């Protein structure tokens, strides 16, 4: 009885798609262009630009999210174009409390190359 269970588990493992996906060398690629999410809140222009620009944690996080927005299983292969930085002045920024104007920045027209495992046998 125990031998039957072990044999059944081996069969399930051998014929499962995940087993084949581990050793796959075939990928599907797609290049997409998108705009990354703006920085939260209102900050000085220099601080908001630093947070939104390439090389920051925020830039890496949202470029990965561009790929996962395609569908489940897509991941970031590379960033082909970092796009351009756009900073907009915040509405309702109280100028009396701060010396600088409040800005929210984001990256526009970012081009990323995404990949996923090729479907099928």
Describe this structure in words.
The protein is of the alpha+beta class and 121 residues long. It has one domain (26-117). It contains four helices and five strands. A three-stranded antiparallel beta sheet has the order 1-5-2, covered by helices on one side. The protein has a two-stranded antiparallel sheet with strand order 3-4. It is elongated and about 75 Å long. The two termini are 33 Å apart. The mean pLDDT is 83.
Helix content class: 25-40%
Q: SSE order in H/E notation?
A: HHEHHEEEE
Could you list the spans in which at least 5 consecutive residues all have pLDDT below 50?
none
DSSP, total strands:
5
Approximately how much beta-strand content do the residues carry?
A: 25-35%
Major beta sheet, specifics?
Answer: 3 strands, antiparallel
Strand arrangement across the biggest beta sheet: 1-5-2
Global shape: elongated
Number of helices: 4
Kindly name the structural category: alpha+beta
User: How many domains make up the 3D coordinates?
Assistant: 1
**What is the arithmetic mean of pLDDT?**
83
N- to C-terminal distance:
33 Å
Output the radius of gyration.
23 Å
How is this structure best summarized?
This protein has 121 residues and is an alpha+beta fold. The protein contains 4 helices and 5 strands, in the order H-H-E-H-H-E-E-E-E.
Using brief descriptors, characterize the structure shown:
4 helices; 29% strand; three-stranded antiparallel β-sheet; two-stranded antiparallel ribbon; alpha+beta; 121 residues
């Amino acid at each position: 009885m125990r031998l039957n269970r072990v044999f059944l588990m081996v069969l399930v493992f051998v014929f499962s798609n995940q087993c084949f996906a581990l050793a796959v060398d075939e990928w599907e690629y797609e290049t997409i262009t998108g705009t990354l999410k703006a920085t939260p809140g209102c900050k000085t222009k220099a601080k908001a630009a630093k947070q939104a620009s390439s090389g920051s944690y925020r830039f890496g996080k949202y470029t990965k999210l561009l790929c996962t927005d395609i569908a489940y299983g897509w991941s970031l292969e590379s960033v082909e174009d970092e796009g351009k930085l756009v900073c907009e002045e915040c509405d309702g920024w109280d100028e009396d409390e701060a010396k600088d104007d409040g800005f929210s920045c984001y990256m526009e027209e970012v081009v990323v190359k995404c990949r996923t495992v090729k479907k099928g046998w």
